[in-house]
Specification:
Distance between the termini: 18 Å
Strand content: 25-35%
CATH architecture: Alpha-Beta Complex
Helix content: 10-25%
CATH superfamily: endopeptidase domain like (from Nostoc punctiforme)
Shape: globular
CATH class: Alpha Beta
Mean pLDDT: 85
Largest sheet: 6 strands, antiparallel
Number of strands: 11
Number of domains: 1
Structural class: alpha+beta
Radius of gyration: 15 Å
Order of helices and strands: EEHEEHHEEEEEHEE
Length: 167
């Protein structure tokens, strides 16, 4: 399956076939370059500021190509409830959805921070039961995927293959 996205005058094609083969080591290396970036709500600028989605967007730009869709403003409220899983739906449109049990190094995980709330946090698995994410009090960090984090995991996605320019 392919998704065509528009970026200025150039049409771009992003392949989302089954198990995308964007190398996990490349994803983790790109993600680790963001470690130490301060937390800044709705930002996505390595070294200057990002939130968890901004981290994911920056890594996407580094390993896949141009962002597949504009990001509308969103709230910081982790307890936000509602009928629409906005983050999940956007991830489904752009990435390869996985069963959480099949998630591996380099994959994106989404978290539901409280019961009844929508998924509002994301990170990237970095190997050895660790993940990298942007957290309000710490900025971008790599930490253990503890049982407290594991029980909040609700979705997993794999990055698609890099974007290729259509000829």
């Amino acid at each position: 399956m392919s998704t065509v996205v528009s970026s200025g005058n150039a049409a771009l094609q992003c392949t989302r076939a089954g198990a995308a083969n964007t190398a996990p080591a490349r994803i983790v290396k790109a993600t680790r370059r963001w470690i130490g970036t301060p937390y800044h709500d709705q930002a996505s600028l390595r070294g200057f500021g990002c939130d968890c989605l901004g981290l994911l967007r920056g890594v996407w730009r580094d390993v896949v190509g141009p962002e597949p869709m504009p990001v509308p403003p969103y709230s910081r409220d982790w307890g936000e409830a509602g009928p629409v899983e906005v983050l999940v739906e956007a991830a489904k449109a752009a990435m390869v959805e996985l069963d959480i049990a099949d998630a591996r190094t380099g994959d994106v995980i989404l978290f539901r921070m409280s019961a009844g709330a929508i998924a509002k946090h994301c990170g990237i698995l970095s190997g050895n039961s660790r993940f990298i994410h942007a957290y309000e009090r710490t900025g971008v960090i790599e930490e253990a995927l503890t049982p407290a984090w594991q029980r909040r995991m609700v979705f997993a996605f794999r990055f698609p293959d890099p974007v290729k320019r259509k000829t």
